[in-house]
Amino acid sequence: MAKYFDRQGFRVFAGCLVSDGDGAKDLLSTCSERLKVVQLDVTEDEQVQSALTTVKEDLGGEGRLVRIKFCCGETPIPHQSDLFQRTSRYM
Q1: How many separate domains does the chain show?
Q2: How many C-beta neighbours within 10 Å does residue 57 have?
Q3: Residue 88 pLDDT more than 50?
Q4: Bridge partners of 12?
């Protein structure tokens, strides 16, 4: 999903359990500079707060947060028209 939104031109913050793991490295090597990997274990309050701080600092006053999406592991990307219909209401 992070790759899809990156290709659509969105700024993406990809919360990864292991920020230097294979999945994070794959995202960094295949996506644009708009994607940023953020260390995030949602069971650790400190990591959640750190991720929030990172997002706030990176966004500055430039934009707004459109969506927070949590998914664990690999998730198939839905058909593009379905995905657009569900996300366009937030734009």
Answers
A1: 1
A2: 8
A3: no
A4: 35
